[in-house]
């Protein structure tokens, strides 16, 4: 996995490479190919740009080819603290698709592929006939494998000390530092020991997030999806409970101000003695359902946010309720 990081990381620290270089590169079109009604153009690059990339009009995603070190050299690098990320031989090539700061690795080549093979593999990736084998979060310097490993650790976050503020890391499985594998596809979170189950109702976990890696201000997240419906659970270390009421009111107001409110939706009974201590659901200005609920568990605030089609309100509330009930302490057997 270190080889993916070394091939795709932005040495400037901005997390914008290689899209930033592709955007400013001089046109050098060398081939084109059709995919449905679209014509994709393959361009050649030099300097800091990748050697090949493909784009089409009307789409934001970019596919590109990039060289990377051998697995052996990358493994040796990963065991040498402070080793530079440059200067390694790069015999491997990766076919990558980038969208919204996430870089999905579709193919790994032992040497640069020929033009026909590259075009054929691009078609397979664009039409989703080839599943990605890995993904790299360029802003968070985080790599994830879509493969099982013996340790069940499938993700790595490089330089987590850079995270916080507007920089977070997205991973797609346990990393053994912030998230730990549990039976049934569940994940245990550092600090709170919360278990995020593999699914809640119709919502299935698809990725995890580190917003702040410092234990005193630890901020982690579990993300779930169901078609175009999304459930996000944020777990924040905030031991001072004296400001809970004000914090809950502020978060609720901020969320409603951002999304707009056109109608109220049914929700849950909330209050200091309830499982969910604050929150509500509503229809936003784009006619999507929105919900936010909050609760305290020990030194941690649990923040539940959900975006859903209004027709799926029952399924959305069922998922929220399933998570909330799972956080209740086990009854004393005595």
Summarize the structure.
With 334 residues, the chain is of the alpha+beta class. It has helices at 2-8, 19-24, 71-78, 115-126, 244-259, 313-326, and strands at 29-35, 38-44, 52-55, 62-68, 92-99, 102-110, 134-137, 142-145, 155-157, 169-171, 179-181, 187-189, 195-196, 199-200, 203-212, 219-226, 229-237, 263-265, 278-283, 288-297, 300-309. It is built from 6 helices and 21 strands.
Present the secondary structure layout.
Blueprint: H1 2-8, H2 19-24, E1 29-35, E2 38-44, E3 52-55, E4 62-68, H3 71-78, E5 92-99, E6 102-110, H4 115-126, E7 134-137, E8 142-145, E9 155-157, E10 169-171, E11 179-181, E12 187-189, E13 195-196, E14 199-200, E15 203-212, E16 219-226, E17 229-237, H5 244-259, E18 263-265, E19 278-283, E20 288-297, E21 300-309, H6 313-326
Antiparallel strand pairs: 1-2, 2-3, 3-4, 4-5, 5-6, 6-7, 7-8, 8-9, 10-15, 11-12, 12-13, 14-15, 15-16, 16-17, 17-21, 18-19, 19-20, 20-21
Strand order of the largest sheet: 1-2-3-4-5-6-7-8-9
Q: Which geometry do the CA atoms define?
A: globular
What pattern of helices and strands is seen along the backbone?
Answer: HHEEEEHEEHEEEEEEEEEEEHEEEEH
Number of helices: 6
Question: Could you estimate the helical fraction of the residues in percent?
Answer: 10-25%
Uncertain ranges:
none
């Amino acid at each position: 996995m270190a080889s993916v990081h070394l091939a795709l990381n932005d040495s400037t620290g901005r997390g914008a490479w290689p899209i930033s270089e592709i955007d400013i590169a001089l046109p050098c079109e060398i081939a084109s190919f059709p995919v449905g009604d679209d014509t994709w153009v393959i361009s050649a690059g030099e300097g800091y740009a990748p050697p090949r990339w493909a784009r089409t009009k009307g789409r934001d995603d970019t596919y590109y080819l990039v060289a990377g070190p051998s697995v052996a050299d990358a493994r040796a690098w990963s065991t040498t603290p402070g080793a530079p990320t440059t200067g390694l031989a790069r015999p491997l090539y990766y076919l990558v698709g980038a969208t919204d700061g996430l870089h999905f690795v579709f193919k790994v080549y032992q040497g640069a592929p020929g033009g026909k093979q590259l075009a054929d593999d691009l078609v397979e990736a664009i039409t989703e006939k080839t599943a990605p084998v890995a993904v790299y979060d360029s802003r968070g310097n985080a790599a994830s494998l879509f493969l099982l490993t013996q340790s069940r650790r499938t993700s790595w976050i490089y330089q987590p000390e850079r995270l916080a503020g507007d920089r977070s890391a997205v991973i797609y499985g346990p990393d053994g530092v912030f998230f730990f594998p549990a039976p049934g596809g569940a994940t245990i979170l550092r600090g709170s020991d919360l278990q995020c189950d593999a699914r809640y109702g119709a919502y299935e976990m698809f990725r995890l997030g580190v917003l702040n890696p410092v234990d005193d201000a630890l901020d982690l997240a579990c993300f779930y999806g169901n078609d175009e419906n999304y459930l996000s659970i944020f777990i924040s270390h905030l031991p001072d409970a004296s400001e809970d009421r004000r914090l809950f009111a502020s978060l609720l107001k901020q969320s409603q101000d951002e999304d707009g409110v056109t109608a109220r939706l049914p929700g849950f009974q909330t209050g200091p003695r309830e499982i969910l201590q604050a929150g509500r659901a509503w229809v936003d200005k784009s006619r999507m359902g929105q919900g936010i609920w909050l609760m305290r568990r020990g030194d941690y605030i649990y923040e539940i946010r959900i975006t859903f089609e209004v027709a799926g309100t029952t399924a959305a509330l069922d998922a929220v309720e399933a998570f909330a009930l799972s956080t209740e302490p086990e009854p004393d057997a005595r």
